[in-house]
Amino acid sequence: MQRRHFAAAVAAATAGLATAGTATAAAHHPGSVPGGDGALLRTMLAALSDELDDRHTARALVPHLADIGFDWHPETAPLEKLDFIVAYDFGNRAPAGGGDPSKVLYEPGPVNEELAGTVARVRAKRDVPVYAQWEIARFLDSKYGMDRVVSIEPVIAPDGTITYLSTDGVAAQVVEARKQLPGGIGTAGVIGFRDHVKRCVLTTRDRGMTAYAPRGFAMPGTYDPESGQPWTRRRDLYLVTDMMAQWTMLQKKLITAAYPNG
Q1: Residue 249 DSSP code
Q2: Dist. CA 46–CA 110, nearest whole Å
Q3: Quick check: 17 pLDDT over 70?
Q4: Which class would CATH give 76-247?
Q5: Checking CA distances to 100, which of 3, 18, 116, 214 falls within 20 to 30 Å?
Q6: Quick one: residue 76, left, alpha or beta (phi over 0 = left, psi -120 to 50 = alpha)?
Q7: Contacts of 125 by beta carbon, 8 Å cutoff, 6+ apart
Q8: Can you say whether the dihedral through the CA atoms of 45, 46, 47, 52 is positive or negative?
């Protein structure tokens, strides 16, 4: 099905949806919405209106439900539009030598090796700097000998305790590094796991960067059943985790928009 702007699909399917709902959905990205010409959205609106006995609230919620629950594709851009690459990790493996995992780094794992391969394929077509979470950066160095790679490392306290960065924590580090450059931040090309990359793009944007996934490049999508992070071992578990994170992001935005002065 030809991709269309998500807000246009919402408008066609549910004319008169609440302004806050359509504005937030439109701000995310274009995406494919299942159900032909808005059939899914019409069904969702009717069902939720009946369930809540409140059509007004249903109109506000449907765009968010469709966006977070049914659209897993980020907005993309051609390579020539990208000024740098940001690569976010996915999962890991328990420390090979054992030890206290709070003070011994986890192993990068096979999924991050695949993500490094995706970075290498993009970099072969567009020679720009790379900011990669350390699990990916290790492979970019050891396997690909890639130059101009900034590794985003975990935070290690004086007592050796390791704090691993969240997706947002990585984005915060990248934007601070880019702010120091004479030409400004520029446009990010975001690499991430297939089910994570949409949120990676949104998180990168929330940190003040223009960001897209590189057009024409498939992202890795095979889960590692031995990952050290249980929520990244199976797709059904991860999608719930990612939706929860997207809802949290949206909640903060909607509250701020509704009550900017607190």
Answers
A1: H
A2: 44
A3: no
A4: alpha beta
A5: 116
A6: beta
A7: 79
A8: positive
Cβ burial, residue 221 (10 Å; 0-12/13-18/19+):
middle
Q: Which two tokens stand for residue 106?
A: 């986890």
Residues 115-123 have a mean pLDDT of 98
Alpha helices in 53-156 (DSSP H): 55-70, 110-125, 134-142
Report the candidate in 232, 257, 256 with the shortest Cα–Cα distance to residue 245: 232
pLDDT by residue (tens digit) across 18-58? 443 444 444 444 444 444 458 999 999 999 999 999 999 99
Give me the DSSP letters along 21-44. Answer: HHHHHHHH--B--SSTTTHHHHHH
CA torsion 10-14-15-18 (nearest 10°) is -80
Every domain of the chain and the residues it spans: 6-71, 76-247
- The DSSP element (H or E) to which 9 belongs, if any, is helix 6-13
The mean pLDDT value for 225-244 works out to 97
Stretch 188-212: mean pLDDT: 98
pLDDT score of 97: 86
Q: Which of 111, 248, 75, 110 has the alpha carbon at shortest distance from 193?
A: 111
Angle between helices 6-13 and 39-52 (to 10 degrees): 60
